[in-house]
């Protein structure tokens, strides 16, 4: 882990980078991993996590004829940097995404409560009738209609 002074300085410098398309910050916020996670493997994680701004969609040179693929970032520290996004994934990670499940024992209809990404593994484990101890999430009783599956291996 880097020193707090280095992390604070890097955070300030990153937050000063603007997107020249909007003149707004290119980065929404920066989180310290140690503020979010704990445990013996914390030192295997990055010190800082960057949450990019999504005010302006960024295209790709590989998709949609390259529309919006050129990004120009600037700050007093770095000057102007321009690059083309060649990555072809068109989706964006969102805190609140779309979750779809169907099949036997899956309750039909929309969920009334949010389900965390951390809850998916224990929910699927319960669906399969498998015990999943020591995980961070909890099974979603709302998602499963009939309790755990009866799995038999022959």
Description:
Residues 150-154 have low confidence and may be disordered. The chain is α+β, with helices and mostly antiparallel strands. Strand 1 and strand 2 (24-25) form a beta hairpin. The chain has helices at residues 4-15, 33-36, 120-127, and strands spanning 18-19, 24-25, 27-32, 48-52, 70-75, 79-84. It folds into 2 domains: 4-84, no CATH class; 94-154, no CATH class.
Could you give a quick summary of the protein structure above?
By secondary structure, this protein is α+β, with helices and mostly antiparallel strands. Helix content is 16%, strand content 18%.
Rg, nearest Å: 21 Å
Uncertain residue segments: 150-154
Helix count equals: 3
Spell out the helices and strands N to C. Answer: HEEEHEEEH
Shape: flat
Strand composition percent = 15-25%
Q: Helical residue percent?
A: 10-25%
- Average the pLDDT over all residues and give the rounded result: 82
Strand count, sense and closure of the main sheet?
4 strands, antiparallel
How is the largest sheet built, in terms of strand order?
2-1-5-6
Write down how many β-strands occur, each being a DSSP E stretch of 2 or more residues.
6
First-last Cα distance: 49 Å
The overall number of domains is 2
């Amino acid at each position: 882990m880097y020193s707090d002074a280095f992390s604070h300085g890097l955070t300030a410098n990153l937050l000063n980078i603007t997107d020249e398309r909007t003149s707004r910050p290119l980065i929404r916020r920066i989180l310290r991993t140690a503020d979010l996670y704990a445990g013996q493997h914390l030192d295997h994680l990055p010190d800082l996590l960057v949450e990019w701004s999504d005010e302006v969609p960024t295209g790709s040179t590989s998709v949609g004829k390259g529309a919006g693929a050129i990004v120009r970032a600037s700050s007093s520290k770095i000057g102007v940097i321009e690059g083309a996004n060649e990555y072809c994934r068109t989706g964006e990670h969102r805190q609140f995404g779309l979750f779809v499940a169907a099949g036997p024992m899956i309750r039909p209809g929309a969920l009334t409560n949010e389900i965390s990404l951390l809850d998916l593994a224990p929910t699927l484990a319960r669906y399969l009738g498998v015990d999943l101890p020591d995980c961070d999430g909890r099974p979603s009783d709302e998602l499963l209609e009939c309790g755990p599956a009866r799995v038999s291996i022959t």
